[in-house]
Amino acid sequence: MPFDTTLWLVALIVFVGIEAATTALVSIWFAVGALAAMILSFFTESVSWQMAVFAVVSGVTLAVMLPTLAKRRKQNRPPVTNGSPLTIGKQGTVLVQITPGDLGRVRVDGLDWQARAEQPMAKGVKCRVDDVDGAVLIVSPVTADTAAV
């Protein structure tokens, strides 16, 4: 394998490795450019042509993806805080007593959460998650009626 082909292969591996480590689309454009330059290295020994192809392909890849990325960034999606919306409807156990107006703690799916309730709940009581407010769960006691839900 010619030296320039090996150089582009190493560059490709490095750029893909950086991309895999960051997962933030910081070097994927250069990986595509390095792949194009490596393919060209099979057909020509001109390093200047290979560098030009690397630069152009990397630039075009970036130019094509940039509008899509900018559009995704402007989408207003509510943040998911620690997966708490996924706990709605699940049952847990009160770890620290909850009194109306004060925060307590509950364990749901093996994770401890701050919790709020409209009625007092003692430690050890089973509770159900009715809603979330940021990273605070809104809970209610599990009764015979709600235990089957």
TrEMBL record:
The keyword NAD does not apply. GO terms for cellular component: plasma membrane. Pfam families: NfeD. The keyword Membrane applies. Residues 88-141 form the NfeD-like C-terminal domain. SUPFAM superfamilies: NfeD domain-like. Keywords: Membrane, Transmembrane, Transmembrane helix. The chain crosses the membrane at residues 7-40, 52-70. It is a multi-pass membrane protein. Gene3D superfamilies: Nucleic acid-binding proteins (2.40.50.140). It is found in: Membrane. PANTHER family: INNER MEMBRANE PROTEIN YBBJ. This is NfeD family protein.
